[in-house]
Design goal:
Helices cover 43% and strands 22% of the residues. With 166 residues, it is of the alpha+beta class. It has two domains: 3-52, no CATH class; 59-163, no CATH class.
Length: 166
């Protein structure tokens, strides 16, 4: 998909044109590139990818303000954020004081689960889970990520290890 097609897609989508309507209007790009190979699913994926990085109404700011407030009230609260090249929230990871203390006692086995999705922004929710001596699950950390790729997961693991003192 060319950047020209991507830009037009997002512009028309924001103006209320559905993805399937836009797909029906696709033809040959100005540069002679055939756009018929793009499916509706390809176009929907591009729209969802762009939208999930745009938290509306100051949601990202509100979340960061809340995390700063939590950290000022408790020095054992930890969070880290990563922004994209446009200054938008890309990834965020957080652990409360209880999770950090729990890891000290029950951190022998840690499971990383990236199978959840949030509803509004479709940002994957990932968590670190441990087990206590009764076999009960314990939450050890959480994150919202923009992409499920090696770069993102490397950043998440590095931040989590930093928080848990290596």
């Amino acid at each position: 998909m060319t950047s020209n097609v991507k830009r037009k897609l997002l512009k028309y989508f924001d103006q209320g044109v559905s993805v399937s309507q836009f797909h029906g209007c696709l033809g040959t790009d100005v540069n002679g590139i055939d756009n018929f190979s793009l499916t509706v699913k390809d176009l929907q994926h591009e729209v969802y990818k762009a939208k999930r990085l745009n938290m509306v109404g100051g949601d990202a700011v509100a979340m960061m303000d809340y995390f700063q407030k939590m950290q000022s009230g408790n020095q054992n609260f930890y969070y880290a954020q990563r922004l994209d090249e446009h200054g938008r929230l890309k990834d965020v990871l957080w652990m409360d004081a209880r999770s950090r203390a729990t890891y000290e006692d029950f951190g022998d086995v840690v499971c990383f689960d990236a199978t959840y999705l949030t509803n509004e922004y479709e940002l994957p929710f990932v968590n670190f889970i441990g087990a206590n001596h009764h076999g009960q699950s314990l939450l050890l950390g959480c994150a919202l990520v923009s992409r499920e790729d090696c770069d993102t997961f490397t950043w998440i693991f590095q931040q989590w290890l930093t928080c848990m003192n290596g």
